Amino acid sequence: MNDRERLLAILDRRPPDRIPWIPRLKLWYDARVLSGTMPERFRGMSLREVERALGVGTPARDGRIFTVEREGVEVVTRREGLLQVTEYHTPMGSVRTTEHQSADLEAQGLPGRVEEYPLKGPDDYRVWEWIVEHTHWRADYDAYRTYDAEIGEDGLPMVGVGDVPIHTFILDLAGYDHAFYQLADYPDEIEHLLAVMTEVERARLWPVIAASPARLVLHGVHLSSQFTPPRIFEKYILPYYDEFMPYVHERGIAVAMHADNDTSQIVEHIERAGWDMVECFVTAPMVPMTLERAREAWGNRVIIWGGLPSLLLAPSVPEGEFRAYVHGIFEAIKPGDAFILGVADNVMPDSLIDRVAWVSEVVRERGVYPIA
Q: Which DSSP symbol is given to 6?
């Protein structure tokens, strides 16, 4: 089997010939290129060529099935020193967001820190409702098919299609520092905003997803025990996915959640919501969650993609500790069903790339299904 066949087998709940090993190398690769510190053996290679040289599959996260249009919205972006300002102008008024960059982050190709979020109160909610009501998702399936052909046997595209409305509000529109104060101060106004977002997405986005040629979509990111705890999950997230999941599952589309946060308190909720997969699934020592507990809770019903915390690739972690952890992964996942080995969340700019190569050797030796 190649990595594409392995991923399709796992989505279909069939055993692969061996455990797929598909980490995200883009952050490491971009940092090495930008800083001129690419190891000699990879110099001049594309990211895909580096992946092949290391013996890993490609995460294939750049596919798309639609473009987004916002009618009547003027988006103005400008740079003020290290601050990037983005303004959204509409007939209902304007909102803006600012992101503070630093020379070190830019040198590594990393995003900056958002300092100002667009939604600060009811006046801004009305502006954003107008933006949502004038947002359209235009199907672009040819773009997906072209990308899918480019990926070929090295992987399977996982297409990002957005987040659940409550978490879009918390993460992107109000920000973690302010969202919960706003939920307490303006509950009726936020309920109305979320209802508008859900209605528009159900009518315009969901059909585009359902009719697409995508086999795997990513819907839901960074949901966590701290910021989407059980109370939030049960009130806002489960009702949304109770509708969304059957709608896309009936059309043969699997849904993944980006799970690089602490999921220890919402592990049961993740399965109840209907996700087929948790990807970039992060475990201890970075969060109070383990592969053993996830397997105990989900069995083989939820596919796990991850299991190797990025911290373990850092120079500060002793080699023996790193190697013991990797061998422990294979003990935890026996016999190897519903599992894709990956790094959670990314192979970071300071990661030791030789450790990635060593994991490839271990996968060849120990990853044959069923794991003994």
A: H
pLDDT at 201 over 90: yes
- Per-residue pLDDT for 105 more than 80? no
Picking from 1, 35, 22, 85, the residue whose alpha carbon sits closest to that of residue 303 is 22
* Domains annotated on the chain, with CATH: 3-69+136-366 (3.20.20.210), 72-133 (no CATH)
Q: Both ends of the chain: CA-CA distance in Å?
A: 19
Residues 6+ apart with CB under 8 A from 153: 2, 3, 4, 5
User: Would you list the DSSP string of 93-138?
Assistant: EEEEEEEE--HHHHHTT---EEEE-S--SHHHHHHHHHHHHTEEEE
CA distance 230 to 134: 32
Express each pLDDT in 279-329 by its tens digit: 999 999 999 999 999 999 999 999 999 999 999 999 999 999 999 999 999
pLDDT score of 186 more than 80: yes
Helices (H) and strands (E) in the chain, counts: 16, 12
Cα-atom radius of gyration of the chain, to the nearest Å?
Answer: 21
Calculate the average pLDDT of the chain: 97
Structure tokens at 96: 């803006």
Contacts of 355 (CB under 8 A, 6+ apart): 312, 313, 322
Question: Token digits for 237?
Answer: 């997230």
CA dist 280 to 159, 309, 368, Å?
A: 14, 9, 22
Q: Is 170 helix (H, G, I), strand (E, B) or coil?
A: helix
CA angle 78, 99, 75 (to 5 degrees): 40
